[in-house]
Amino acid sequence: MNYNAENRTPCDRIGEELFSHVGQMPTQHYGKQEIRATSSSPSLSAKTASCPTCKAGTSRQGGCACARGTGRSSCPGRTSGRCRVHGEDQLAGLPLAMAYVPMQQWRNLYDLENGFERGTLFKELDFPFYPTACPRKGCR
Amino acid sequence: MMTRDRNALMHDIRVYGFALVEVNLYLDTHPGDQAAIACYNKYNRLLEEAYVEYESKYGPLTIHGGTADDCWSWVEGPWPWEYSANVSR
Description:
The complex is a heterodimer. Chain A is an all-alpha fold.
């Protein structure tokens, strides 16, 4: 199929196929609504997603049941309160290998001087990164 | 308005300019955000005031910032690599 001849965007090319299994996801709007669609997950059922470790079905909110009270002790993949396989993954059920960026909101601003010093006006975007030693042995 | 010396004016221009870039980037993805638009307008006005005050006192900040009278004032201020052009407060 010649997509260029049809004047379709890359977004159109991946849209229908990738999201076809996520029933009610609004394909024409997913650029802005993927997070909201996930948190309510109206289309996710226990049949379509289950924790491969504890074999429990996911709840409507996503994530496996082993991290949510019932069956806690029976999940072998659970470490320190969370199933390390699915845990509290709010994005469970969405297509893999896609990047999701929550929409920023106008809130938590630095004042001008502090923002200038920090390099951003937004506290929520202030992520100082410090170099640390590589955890791998022998790696420099 | 409070008078500011050269360094304080330059500092304010940098701070307002930086804030405007931040709000500008935010508005690129939130063009209808009224709070951000108000913020942009406020800082834009403050930057404009600081610009006008600086150029009226100390000469042009950009090549567009002054008028050529009897002397080419652009060469009179400190050059970007000189210390006095980079000190902030």
